[in-house]
Amino acid sequence: MEHLRAEPDDASLLAAVARGDLDSFQAFYQRYAGRVLSYARQLSRNRELAEDVTQEVFTAVWSKAGSFRPDRGDPAGWLYTMTRNRLIDHWRKAGAGAEHATLGEEHPAGRPEGVDVLLTVQQALSRVEPEQRRAIEMAYFGGFTYEETARRLELPVGTLKSRIRSGLKAMRSVLEAT
Hints:
By secondary structure, this protein is mainly α. The chain is built from 9 helices and no strands. It folds into 2 domains: 7-106, Rna Polymerase Sigma Factor, Chain: A, CATH 1.10.1740; 109-178, Winged helix-like DNA-binding domain superfamily/Winged helix DNA-binding domain (Arc Repressor Mutant, subunit A). Helices cover 73% and strands 0% of the residues. α3 (47-64) crosses α4 (75-94), α7 (130-141) packs across α9 (157-177) and α8 (146-153) crosses α9 (157-177). It is globular, with a radius of gyration of 18 Å.
């Protein structure tokens, strides 16, 4: 009887990538490339920039997989943080206001553009519970990992994640109503 081998988990794949295993890199890429591209497009609203950033993120995965620390978060979070940071780097290089310009591109008709989108997100954030807002601001805008945010707020990581999840759900409701 042939035994089915379980797919390696993400952390195991990254450990193998750190050792130069191309097959593991390809498996990791196939698992996450679409998600990273989608996330980059969602943040930037610019297809070309999202594609460039996705390529940069996976180039960094290949060269920096050994820097991934499972004790600081999961591989998906690591990827999304790298993606967000790469986008911020692109916007900084392009000059002040570039993030507003890219946010305005490719918006469906009838949707607010540019700064209006940022104001809408800020308005939605202002409508969540204060403890949820603080957790979201620190984890997403403060550049802290979940573990660092939890430590600063003196919360268990699970409680922090629940607050963030609830806050984002509330924000989504506000944004969908606009």
